[in-house]
Every structure is written in structure tokens, then in C-alpha cells.
Amino acid sequence: MNKFIKIEIETTSPDESEILIADLADIKFYAFEQEENSLFAYVKEEDFDEEKLNEVLPAKTFFTKNIIDDKNWNQQWESELQPVIIKDFAAIRASFHEPVKNIKHELIITPKMSFGTGHHDTTFLMIEMMEAINFQQKSVIDFGTGTGVLAILAEKLGASKILAIDNDDWSINNTLENVEANECSHILVEKGDTLKGIPAVDIILANINLNVLTTAALSISSLLKKESLLLVSGFLTKDEILIKKAFADNHFVKKNLLQKGDWMAILFVKM
To answer: Tell me, which fold does domain 115-270 have in CATH?
Structure first.
């Protein structure tokens, strides 16, 4: 049975928690819960590096550590999970929830441990911005797919060919489950951490983190033709200039952006 490390960190403000989430995501933490003065962060046991954790945390920050198995995680997750509704455009619910009415697109996402259920601001922003994009008969890459939620929505919006990529075995397996649950037929799920050797597409979706996005900017650019679209999130508003520069250097121009809390999503067009 898979085991996970749960870290509880004392925080002083929501802003501090948001910054910590971004930093912890860079060292393989990928599920988070926030309370008034606490942040709970989860990482797979084999990915946990206490030395790196101490480097990320501010000096004299107090935290506690517990080991939990995935059964206990899922029981807790299911007991707390509620559907996420983005206007009348999309709703994300678990299979045990009642169907959501008066919604254009309903997504069924298995409530297991992963980034990308829609409860995090970055996934919410990506979905909200996808409403204004024309996916009809487009080819799409969902880079860092997590649960597959963005790839699944892309198919529901008319995309004809979608490649969902992630470097984590658990995410790949969970995406395959969710693809089946949503009866999708145009999504190919592959394990990988780079975009090398992949044919060009019309749209790239990348909800990852600042470091991966800036490192992959050149590879992303090589897969998009002129006037193709790139939608990115997973970074804080304070990093807007860094993201814009990384992609401006690779022939992208900002088309639109949205902000939710301290997080941001940007839609770029390739020039």
C-alpha cells in the first residue's frame, strides 16, 4: 500500500500559505489543505526530502510530520470533498455526488490524492479561462495532467486529439480512471517529464509550477505554430514578470490573464 507524508506547518497568514504551496510544489508536494493558521501538505513517502523541506521553510518555522496510507487519505478526502462549480460553465464532482444541474460541462474526477480536482485556485483558473478558447477539432497537450481534468474538459469542448502527460505513475493511473469515467475517446495518456519528440499541436495547457514552466518554455514554443495558444498556471502573481519574460523570449505574447487569490493564469498566443 502506498504511504504518504503529511506535514502540518504553522503559518501566520493566507499569503504565507500561498507562497509556501508554490515552494513545496517544487519539491514534489502536490496536495494541500489550508486552515486559518495551518497549512497541511502531502507528499509521497519516497519523494519526501526533509533537508529540502527545511531549505524551503522560513527559519524557525514549526511543523509536524505524520505518515498516512492512501486508504486513510481517501477516506478523509471523500468526507470533505464537495463539488466545484465554475459559473454555469463547468462542474467537477466525484462519482458519489449527485449530478450538478444547469451546467454546460460536468466532469467526474475520482477523489484521490492529486493536484487538479478543481479545488485549487490554479485549476479553477485554468478551467475558467478554457471557456473562451475554441477547442473544436483542435489538437491539445495537457502537460502535467495530474488527474486529467483539463484534458477531459478539452475533449468535452470539442478537441479532436489530446495528449495528457505526467511524470508520476499515480497520476497516470488516476487520469486513465477519470478518462474512462467521463467516457472520453480522444485522450492519449503517457508518462513523461519532457515534450521532446512530440508532434506540434494547436493548444498547450500547462498547470504546473514556475520552475517547470520557465525551464520548458523553449520546448513548449517548439510545439506551437504561429497563432497557436498556450494556457499556463501554477505560479503566484508575484512571479508574473518572470513568466511573461520566459515566454516572451520564446515568441509568445500575453492575450489574457486571470487572478484568484495569490495565483494567476495567463493565456499566451504564439507569434
So the answer is: Rossmann fold (3.40.50)
